[in-house]
Every structure is written in structure tokens, then in C-alpha cells.
Amino acid sequence: MSLTNEHLPLAAGGFAEPSRAEVRDFVTLLKPRVMSLVVFTALVGMVLAPGGLHPVLAAVSLFCIAIGAGASGALNMWWDADIDAIMTRTRGRPVPAGRMEPGEALAFGLVLAVGSVLTLLLAANWQAAALLAFTIFFYVVIYSMWLKRWTVQNIVIGGAAGAFPPMVGWVAVTGSISVESVVLFLIIFIWTPPHFWALALVKSEDYARAGVPMLPVVAGEAETRRQILIYSLILVPLAVVPFAMGFGGLTYGAVSIGMGALFLMLAIRVFRVREGAPAIKAARDLFAYSILYLFVLYATLLGEALFSAGA
Amino acid sequence: MAEPDKGLVLSDEQKRRRRARNIALALVLGGLVVLFYLITLFRLGGDVVNRPL
Hints:
The complex is a heterodimer. Chain A has helices spanning 23-29, 32-48, 55-79, 81-84, 102-123, 126-147, 154-174, 179-202, 204-210, 215-218, 221-238, 241-245, 250-272, 276-310, and one strand at 7-8. By secondary structure, chain A is mainly alpha-helical. In chain A, helix 8 (179-202) runs antiparallel to helix 14. Chain A is flat and about 55 Å long. Chain B is mainly alpha-helical. Chain B has one helix spanning 12-44; one strand at 8-9.
């Protein structure tokens, strides 16, 4: 039997119809914006870590961590397609929008997950590969499949998945987990709840409609504002720990204290301003600032490490 | 007489998208070849030339 490009017997082979997915849909599955943050924090972990990994192998390791994060994103979009279709923020994603079959997203995610872990094993060490595999498992199975729809603490525990990358970067260089890498992990881990709850305050109707038990939906906005403030009060001093431990320099110390003070002010504003448009603006401001805050903290650590290496 | 079954006929848009996916996949495969070459080279380091002649 001969086949031409134009006349494939796809229907006979069990496919309802050929894929409609475009290349950019596969790129969307990788959640590029999340990926860029993962690459950045993992890079900081790698640069701060003592010891040497050849720059080319370090670049390959960083690439593997990025692809591992992309795999998590693809598998998350496969699993969450039903609730993504309900929420305004996510309804345009390839699977809920109907541009891609769920099976395509699943296969894409699985191939990338296995490929990134095995390649990291070759480029760096088994410890980093195991930690990357655990990170993907944690995000997809523990967070997406289990916690997200089940408990109000979903993003508190699930936030660990987003906090692992600097630790994976660190382990890729050293082969072991140290106190410094745990601190880098904890900063993102404690940062995640106030960051996402600030967004949830603005988008609580979306989450309610999708049946996701986010804190404002289940415990109310007042409790969410209180929790944001509590986590902020833990986060700001925690972010100064790298300076106290000596792997963050004077510049980092000043930046973490100065920016932390502003973080606290914005969290207090979210706590106090509770009605109307100013309340929404306060939550939006904290959400936007929290991204800048984390970026600047890590960028300062990176800058100091590169500067001292070059000096 | 019934028309012979041509199977599923792709539209021009479907063909364009499939071609784009195929090109992307080819680039990824080529990239992987380079990636594994580099990993091998830099993992072996100086040992890359250490072989009986």
C-alpha cells in the first residue's frame, strides 16, 4: 500500500482527525514565563554553589532544568484542562481552546520530563537528576493532581515545586544539598503564598467558578489578608539570612532590607484596605511588586557572586 | 460506482501546520545531536584523546 502526504488513512488508524496544533502551541505548553524564572533562579543556585562544573556542562544542566520545568507545565496543562477552560486567565491555553488533543500534551510532557532528567544525569550527576525528577513529580502529582483541588493549603505546599530549581542548580554543581541551598529554597517557598494569594484576591471569582479551593474562596478575604501579612512577616527577615550567613554581601543585605520594608508596607496595605477599587489595587500592587522583589533579591546574589569571581 | 476511499484528506492549513511541526521536530533532533556530542566531549575532557592508537 502506498501513502501520499495528502491521503493519509488516519481515520482507519484510529485517529479522529490529524493534529491541529501549531508549533507555538507546544511552546505555550512549556509556560515560557514560568520557565524563565526557573532558569534564572537555577542559574543563581549554580553560580553561588562552590566547586566547578564545566561552563558547557553547566549550560546544558541549566537547559535540562528549564526543559524539566516546561515538562511540568505541559503535564499541568494536560491535567488541568477542565478547570483551565472555566477560568478567564487560562481558557486560551492550547488544550481547553481545542487546538490540541489532551493526549498530545500528555505525550509531549512525558517525553520532555524523561528526556530532561536523563540528560541532566549525563551532564551533571544523579543527585541533581533525582531532584529534578522529584520536582516534576511534586508539581504534577502532588500539586496539580492532589493538592490543588483538595486543600486550601494547595499553593503553600505546592509552592515547594517552584522553590526547588535553585537547589537543583546547586546540586548539579556540588552533588549535595547544603544549608545555603535550603535557604535559597525557603525564600521562594515562603514568598509563594503571599504572591499567589495577592493574585487570588483579585481573581477569586475565577477560582470559585472553577472549584479550586483557594484561600479567599474557602476562608474569605479577611483571612487571606491576614495570612498574606503573616507570610510576609516571615519572608522579609528570612530574605536577609543569606547576608547573615555570609553568602550574600553588603549590597544584598541593604537590598533585602530595603525591598523587604516596601514588601511589608504593601502587605500591610492589603491587610488594611479592604473595600472597593483601592483594595483591588493594593492586591495588584503587592502581586506585581512580589515578582520584582524576588527577581531583585536573586539578581543581587548573582551580581555579587559574578563580581567577586571576576575581581 | 462508488468513489474509491481516499482516507482523510488534509486541508492546506492542516498541511501547513504539520509541515511546521515536522521542521520544528527536525531542528530539535539536530539540536539533540549537538547537545549529546557536547556532553560527551566535555564529560570526557582530556580523556577524549586518551585511547590506544
